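[agent] plan:
  1. take the single chain provided in the ticket
  2. run structure prediction with default settings
  3. attach structure tokens to the ticket
  4. add a short note for the reviewer (M.T.)
[agent] executing step 1
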Amino acid sequence: MSPIKFIHILLLSIFLLGCDQGEKVNNSTDNSRGEAIGSEGDQKVNKRKLLSGQRCASIEYYNPQTGTSSTYTLFVEVESNRLVKVFFPDGFMDTEHFTAPEIDDGGGCTFINDKGYHYKVQILETNTACSLQEAREQQCSGITRSGNRCKHKTSHPSGRCYQHR
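[agent] step 2 finished; step 3 output follows
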């Protein structure tokens, strides 16, 4: 191997290791569906395309206290190549609950939120999967304590979010 190739590989390795926050997501199976986490061929995105904006992502979730794990396809918000918000059907999680991780060159990142849940995020090439999921969602039909209609979105058959079921 030439010295130049060796230096390039060394620098790339240092960069990738520097971006890794040392947080590992359990690659076990989804307890509720029996699917292997990360087994789907995710469409990866080059980081240079991710300056900021709303993107579709595959999100692997793991709760180490219960051993529960799941994979979701959700919208996320990216600012300056950092993940700052994850949009769930019943609300969102932002940087009040986790430190904004940097998106790596492959379009992925990992983080642990303030409850100790582990997340592995992979930005997808297109928003199609998220758009289809969003089309099934509707505004919660529940009424808040102040008498206004709830602003959460839900895909639950009852038409109510987790707070109003």
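[agent] step 4 note for reviewer: The first helix runs from residue 3 to 19.
[agent] ticket updated
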